[in-house]
């Protein structure tokens, strides 16, 4: 190649004779180039990735030598004749293209001259950063030029084509495409360094400069500690070092403001902001955006909010927006035309850096401006799903913009422990990338387990080490621990992974020990009891209805001790939540409570889960958000009593006791700022117990005497399995029992509890005294993962995040120290939010009624209800109707939307248009068929 010549005959012969493992036995630099060519559209992946579990691939050579065409590069439907034709080149290759050969010769010679530098990076691991930047530049260059028209002045006799246009007609010649993509990739690579120096920051944020109010002084003390450390380390030759921060302040202590103040203090000048705030739920992004504008004081041109869909924003603001849809490129002639950022971005127009023009074609100005805003705005608020695409994308270009954003922005992950083991491994990959790109990382939550803190530190320090080799930065990582009781900053210099992580563990344990002492002194707002299930155990086949009756009786008991007397009617009123593990029991329990005999008590029931039409779920969440703020002082009437719906219920019932009950799946546990009087929990994990407990008296002070949280002795999955056993005893369970604390939960066959009895798995005396996060944030010196529910989680998290000697793509460590990152196998095994079974349907308003429809790639809506066997639920009785807390009606909700629009047309036509926008619902095909109800959402038919 350095000579500028290409022997087509020899190359063709080599391909024919050695096409099973083309990357085997190549020189190191050739392997890097070969991988870039192989992966520039799609990473290698496996049909059965779990077969690679525990297989160590420590070197590039060891990894690449095993890759064949079966790793996602071969059409399974090709017969032998067609397969053979793939290695015949009747039109020749590119040896007749002078422009291409000229470029090939030039850059091959330059590559040859840089062998010593590349070898150095191969030795210290820094080549990983080079490959990351090279692949990113190639893909961006490909995306850019693929969207351009063919160059009419291109001189070439080559007949080979690179792609076709949207009409499937020939577009760019192959040599033109390769040369122009190369030129564009070069321009892009030359701009990458400017991301860390020339991007916008937010200055002079007065709210962050002001002293924190009384009770929140800890925020300023944390900033002072960090600032002092920065002054002490300024004499380091001007080199940067890493930052990894853990904020564990309790709910209600002002973590949002604190995180912004800390990130400002960490900035180069100590007075500016530029970071990504990654949240767990898309419904929180707009709320957080509002908070950043109003409480922190960011101006509209300093903030971008990635919201996932325009419908969510419209429902949040109830404002008009253009109903145009982005075009689909699924049927176009170029895979590189895929939209980089399909999600809706809420931002104000403002100038951006000129150098960003090299990234995006100018022919679609609106799309280019959106992409630039995503990259340029000082603060970006989004769900973690959007930014984690930087490491999770297996094919296509969805990873490119998140990667570019991480080049210039520090990363704050809020409520990081809201995720399970697989998701945490994926988040670890993201944190490693942030470190590798030279960014600072903060994780924030009041209940971070030690394995999560240490595992993520390990991921960060491994990434930062690579960055220090690539950019000649200091290998030192400064770690900060922050909560409302104090702050600590510690420098962890470079050591081997085990030593560095041991040092981190020692400091973290000391910080947590202090936190535990303070937490134990706090007024007790929550106590728990365990509800015995003896009758449900004895009932065998009828265990579920007996279990549900026990829940009902428990709710009535909790209400007696935790209610408020309405001064207008004299009625005793409480708001409670019953948490169940899955959607089917959520619906079944709601139906049971609507039909049950409550005597002189008036229940008001609401089912709350994720499989609900977007418009109705929005209405539900807006109502709950308004009613359950509960920030009143002790003895004061809740604002909820003045809400029209709540007031109507209180006025229209003769019962003296009124219970407002939300029956919820784990959707209630994450990101909900709800405040209930009491809770009942079907146990799945200690994490779920603590998360749900955080919704009881969330914003109210004062101490309690009686338990306000009830935990069921068994969960339904356990009772269901016990009913199949002839003789339920501890010994029989250990022989024949199955994991029951999973989906959600951490129990698996290889890490199984000796009993499903929560009385044996939890310290009941401690729960009776106070329920708090201490068992979750502090790991005992000796853990019993088979006997204690909290210890089970510690062990499971350690297995996923802190087993530094483990081999194979199933663990986080392989992403850090092996070469599995050259493939998509780690993401296949531990896929972030693994909900591949779920698809999206739309409840369309057609011919005066709602119809379930699927949406094709072309954007057409086709009926789907019959195929999916979706049937309407039987109508509720008058008694059941009267017991609904919030009566939901899809038709009425759509008609209400018509009042918020100035569009003209027939009502039915406008309702259809609105239903296309707001009728989205998740769905998973099952043989049993589905039932739909406005009140209960979409749920599986029994039997």
Topology:
Blueprint: H1 8-17, H2 28-39, H3 60-64, H4 80-85, H5 98-113, H6 115-124, H7 127-146, H8 174-191, E1 202-203, H9 206-209, H10 217-232, E2 242-247, H11 255-266, E3 272-273, E4 275-279, H12 282-296, E5 303-306, H13 310-317, E6 345-346, H14 365-376, E7 379-383, H15 384-387, H16 389-392, H17 400-408, E8 410-414, H18 421-436, E9 441-444, H19 450-471, E10 477-483, E11 486-492, H20 497-520, E12 528-531, H21 534-539, H22 543-561, E13 564-565, E14 572-579, H23 583-595, E15 601-608, H24 614-627, H25 644-651, E16 657-664, E17 678-681, H26 686-693, E18 709-712, H27 716-722, H28 730-736, H29 758-761, H30 764-769, H31 774-777, H32 789-801, H33 812-817, H34 825-829, E19 839-846, E20 849-855, E21 861-863, H35 865-868, E22 870-872, H36 878-882, H37 890-898, H38 907-918, E23 920-923, E24 930-933, E25 937-940
Parallel strand pairs: 2-9, 2-10, 4-7, 4-8, 5-7, 8-9, 12-18, 14-16, 14-17, 15-16, 17-18, 22-24
Antiparallel strand pairs: 1-3, 5-6, 10-11, 13-14, 19-20, 19-23, 20-21, 24-25
Helix pairs in contact: 7-8, 10-11, 14-17, 18-19, 18-32, 19-20, 19-32, 37-38
């Amino acid at each position: 190649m350095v000579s500028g010549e290409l022997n087509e005959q020899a190359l063709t012969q080599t391909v024919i004779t050695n096409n099973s493992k083309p990357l085997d036995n190549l020189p190191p630099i050739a392997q890097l180039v070969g991988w870039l060519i192989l992966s520039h559209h799609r990473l290698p992946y496996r049909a059965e990735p779990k077969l690679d579990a525990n297989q160590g691939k420590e070197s590039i050579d060891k990894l690449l030598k095993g890759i064949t065409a079966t790793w996602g590069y071969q059409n399974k439907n090709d017969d032998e004749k067609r397969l053979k034709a793939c290695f015949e080149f009747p039109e020749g290759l590119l040896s007749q293209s002078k422009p291409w050969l000229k470029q090939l010769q030039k850059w091959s010679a330059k590559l040859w001259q840089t062998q010593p530098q590349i070898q150095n990076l191969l030795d210290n691991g820094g080549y990983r950063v080079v490959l990351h930047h090279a692949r990113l530049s190639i893909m961006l260059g490909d995306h850019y030029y693929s969207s351009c028209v063919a160059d009419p002045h291109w001189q070439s006799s080559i007949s080979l084509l690179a792609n076709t246009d949207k009409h499937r007609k020939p577009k760019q010649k192959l040599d033109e495409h390769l040369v122009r993509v190369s030129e564009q990739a070069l321009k892009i690579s030359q701009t990458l360094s400017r991301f860390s120096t020339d991007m916008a920051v937010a200055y002079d944020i007065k709210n962050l400069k002001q002293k924190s109010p009384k009770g929140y002084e800890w925020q300023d003390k944390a900033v002072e500690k960090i600032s002092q450390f920065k002054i002490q380390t300024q004499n380091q030759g001007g080199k940067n070092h890493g930052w990894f921060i853990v904020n564990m302040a309790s709910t209600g202590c002002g973590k949002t403001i604190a995180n912004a103040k800390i990130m400002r203090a960490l900035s180069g000048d100590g007075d500016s902001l530029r970071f990504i705030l990654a949240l767990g739920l898309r419904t929180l992004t707009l709320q957080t955006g509002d908070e950043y504008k109003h409480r922190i004081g960011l101006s509209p041109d300093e903030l971008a909010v990635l919201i996932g869909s325009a419908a969510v924003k419209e429902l949040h603001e109830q404002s008009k927006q253009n109903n145009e849809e982005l075009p689909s490129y699924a049927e176009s002639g170029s895979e590189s035309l895929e939209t980089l950022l399909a999600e809706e971005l809420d931002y104000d127009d403002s100038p951006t850096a000129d150098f960003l023009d090299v990234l995006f074609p100018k022919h679609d100005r609106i799309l280019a401006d959106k992409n630039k805003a995503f990259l340029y705005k000082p603060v970006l608020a989004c769900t973690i799903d959007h930014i984690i695409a930087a490491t999770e994308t297996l094919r296509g270009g969805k990873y490119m913009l998140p990667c570019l954003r991480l080049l210039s922005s520090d990363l704050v992950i809020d409520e990081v422990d809201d995720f399970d083991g697989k998701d945490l491994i994926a988040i670890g990959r993201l944190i490693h990338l942030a470190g590798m790109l030279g960014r600072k990382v903060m994780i924030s939550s009041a209940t971070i387990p030690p394995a999560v803190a240490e595992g993520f530190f390990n991921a960060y320090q491994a990434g930062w080490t690579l960055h220090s080799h690539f950019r000649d930065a200091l290998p030192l990582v400064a770690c900060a621990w922050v909560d409302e009781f104090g702050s600590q900053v510690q420098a962890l210099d470079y050591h081997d992974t085990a030593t560095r992580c041991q040092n981190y563990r020692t400091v973290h344990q000391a910080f947590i020990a202090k936190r535990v002492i303070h937490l134990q002194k706090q007024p007790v707002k929550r106590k728990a009891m365990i509800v015995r299930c003896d009758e449900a155990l004895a009932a065998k086949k009828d265990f579920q209805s007996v279990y549900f009756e026990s829940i009902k009786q428990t709710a009535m008991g909790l209400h007696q001790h935790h209610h408020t007397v309405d001064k207008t009617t004299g009625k005793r009123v409480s708001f409670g939540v019953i948490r169940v593990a899955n959607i089917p029991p959520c619906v079944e329990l709601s139906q049971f409570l609507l039909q049950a005999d409550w005597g002189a008590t008036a229940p008001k029931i609401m089912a709350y889960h994720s499989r609900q039409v977007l418009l109705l779920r929005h209405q539900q969440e807006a109502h709950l958000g308004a009613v359950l703020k509960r920030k009143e002082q002790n003895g004061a009437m809740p604002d909820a009593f003045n809400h029209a719906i709540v007031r109507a219920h209180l006025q229209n019932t003769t019962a003296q006791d009124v219970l407002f009950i939300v029956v919820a799946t784990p959707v209630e546990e994450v990101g909900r700022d709800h405040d209930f009087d009491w809770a009942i929990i079907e146990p799945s994990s200690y994490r779920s117990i603590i998360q749900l407990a955080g919704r009881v008296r969330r914003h109210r002070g004062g101490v309690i005497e009686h338990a306000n949280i009830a935990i069921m002795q068994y969960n339904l999955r356990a009772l269901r399995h016990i009913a199949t056993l002839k003789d339920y005893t501890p010994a029989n369970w250990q022989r024949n029992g199955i994991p029951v604390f999973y989906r959600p939960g951490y129990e698996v066959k290889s890490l199984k509890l000796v009993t499903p009895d929560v009385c044996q798995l939890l310290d009941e005396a401690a729960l009776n005294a106070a329920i708090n996060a201490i068992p979750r944030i502090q790991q005992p010196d000796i853990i019993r993962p088979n006997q204690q529910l909290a210890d089970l989680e510690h062990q499971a998290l350690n297995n996923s995040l802190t087993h530094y000697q483990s081999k194979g793509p199933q663990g986080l460590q392989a992403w850090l120290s092996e070469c599995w990152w050259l493939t998509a196998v780690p993401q296949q095994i531990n896929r972030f939010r693994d909900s591949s079974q779920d698809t999206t349907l739309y409840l369309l308003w057609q011919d005066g009624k709602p119809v379930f429809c699927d949406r094709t790639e072309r954007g057409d809506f086709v009926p789907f209800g019959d195929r999916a066997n979706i049937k309407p639920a039987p109508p509720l009785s008058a008694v059941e109707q009267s017991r609904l807390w919030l009566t939901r009606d899809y038709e009425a909700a759509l008609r209400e939307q018509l009042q918020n629009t100035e569009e003209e047309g027939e009502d039915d036509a406008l309702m259809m248009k609105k239903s296309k926008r707001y009728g989205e619902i998740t769905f998973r095909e099952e043989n049993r068929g589905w039932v739909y109800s406005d009140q209960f959402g979409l749920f599986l038919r029994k039997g």
